[in-house]
Design brief:
By secondary structure, the protein is an all-alpha fold. It has 21 helices and no strands.
């Protein structure tokens, strides 16, 4: 490992016999619709909150501010706590729901949890599309958040457990790829519905979120649950049959016995969440419309959405070849530089009530935003879900994923609730603020994050954490748990 900071990804065990079967590919594609559902909501909510008819119906104060005469405030025109609550309420519900989802993934399985997620999202979409007041709108958002919490809990675990070791990273990244595709679709839909006369375009935008929700619901009825989940719930024969089916070979005894042993150890942990907490003493959505006229900001959303999708494909191809650490470190440098360039341009040229950027500077900002999005899309976006889902031992895997989703949603909630106010007060400095955090997390990766490429998921503790220069001091020599 470069710099000597990562654990070796080989030794002590080997690859299990497995084919890349149609069952695995189809199951992963169907399950990854949970990402499509999440991504569509991320993209659609940002566009809907800029539609005049939506603002007039639910946020008249913001509507009057955006329709006022004279030059609009570049930094403060959308600064409204109620409007921010519309966006952030989903993440608040998601971080709460993930604790219930942690229990369902253990007791009911990954498949049933994905089904519950789809049902929550369908009902939330219906309420949002039919909303006649702010209460209906927020309740719908809360139901959507529950769907996101359950989906983000179950889907990454499902993908990591069902995938063969050698392509686990690529198949897991299908989740994030679908998130980016959902965002791109939402950007195009918002671009079209914003032009609908009659004031109902926002309802169409919100209502179409039911399509990926139905796809996830139907998909969850079709896929087979993971062998790890079946065996952990005492369904040994079903688990073995499922393992043979997804691996495409009859000789699965070695992998089966390893999962059974992991399940036995997991059954000894009565409270996985408490055990996890005892062990372990930002997808930031920058909707950058600053300095751009309204049509230009819509175009830039479509452009960055396309870059997001294409860059995630880069990660899909490279993650199991170059590894997780290299992608994270390279992207950290790229994201830091691009945000600092944007901060400098906005700081010099865009004042609170100045006109739009010149075409040349506007193009530079769009290029830098695309550079940031590209770096995030092939690193922190997908790997933020992949690495936690493959890191934890079976006994704390559901609880660990729950904490992952909860922390992700907690900080997304904080940013969603505070971002417009931060933008109003920090102005261009908000890009410097986030650049500083990019630097912090990149230093963490350099020194403290081991490489997990090509390591069987049930061997992660022995082959990665017990070999790491720092984390091995917290490991139990006799077991697979942290102190």
């Amino acid at each position: 490992m470069a710099g000597g900071f990562g654990a070796p990804a080989h030794g002590g065990g080997g690859q299990f016999e497995a084919k890349i079967t149609p069952v695995v590919i189809i199951s992963c594609i169907l399950a990854a619709n949970g990402g499509l559902m999440f991504g569509y909501d991320i993209g659609i909510s940002g566009g809907v909150t800029a539609m005049p008819h939506f603002l007039k119906n639910f946020f008249p104060v913001v509507y009057r501010k955006t329709q006022g005469k004279g030059i609009e405030s570049n930094y403060c025109k959308y600064d409204n706590q109620g409007l921010q609550l519309f966006t952030s309420s989903l993440y608040l519900a998601a971080l709460t729901a993930t604790f219930a989802a942690s229990r369902t993934t253990r007791t009911l399985g990954r498949k049933a949890t994905m089904l519950i997620a789809g049902i929550f999202f369908i009902f939330g979409t219906i309420l949002n599309a039919a909303a006649v007041n702010l209460v209906m709108l927020v309740i719908g958002r809360l139901l959507l958040g529950c769907g996101v919490g359950f989906a983000n809990q179950a889907v990454p675990l499902f993908l990591s457990e069902i995938a063969p070791t050698r392509i686990r990273g690529a198949l897991n990244i299908l989740f994030q790829l679908n998130v980016t595709i959902g965002i791109l679709f939402a950007n195009h839909i918002n671009f079209g519905t914003a032009k609908i006369t009659g004031g109902w375009g926002w309802r169409l935008s919100l209502g179409l979120g039911g399509i990926p929700a139905v796809m996830l619901t139907v998909g969850s009825l079709i896929v087979v649950d993971t062998p790890n989940s079946l065996i952990a719930r005492g369904k040994l024969e079903e688990g073995k049959a499922a393992l043979k089916k997804i691996r495409g070979v009859s000789n699965v005894e070695a992998e089966y016995l390893e999962i059974v042993e992991a399940s036995r150890m997991a059954s000894e942990v009565k409270n996985p969440m408490r055990n996890l907490l005892k062990q372990s003493s930002a997808e930031t959505d920058l909707n950058c419309t600053v300095g751009f006229k309204s049509d230009a900001s819509l175009y830039s959303s479509v452009i960055t959405g396309a870059v997001n999708v294409l860059s995630t494909v880069v990660s899909l191809y490279s993650v199991d070849k170059v590894g997780r650490r290299l992608l994270l470190l390279q992207a950290g440098v790229q994201m830091f530089i691009s945000q600092m360039v944007v901060a400098v341009v906005l700081g010099i040229k865009v004042k609170d009530h100045s006109e739009s950027l010149t075409p040349g500077l506007a193009l530079l900002v769009v290029v830098m935003i695309c550079t940031f999005v590209a770096g995030f899309a092939w690193s922190w976006g997908p790997l933020g879900w992949l690495i936690p889902s493959e890191t934890f031992p079976l006994e704390t895997r559901s609880a660990g994923q729950s904490v992952t989703v909860c922390v992700n949603m907690l900080f997304t909630f904080v940013i969603a609730q505070a971002f417009l106010s931060m933008l109003c007060h920090f102005k261009f400095g908000i890009f410097i603020f986030f650049s500083a955090w990019v630097l912090v997390i990149s230093v963490f990766v350099l020194f403290l994050l081991p490489e997990t490429k090509n390591v069987p998921i049930e061997e992660m503790t022995d082959r990665v954490w017990k070999q790491h220069w720092y984390w091995r001091r917290f490991m139990d020599d006799d077991g697979d748990a942290f102190y």
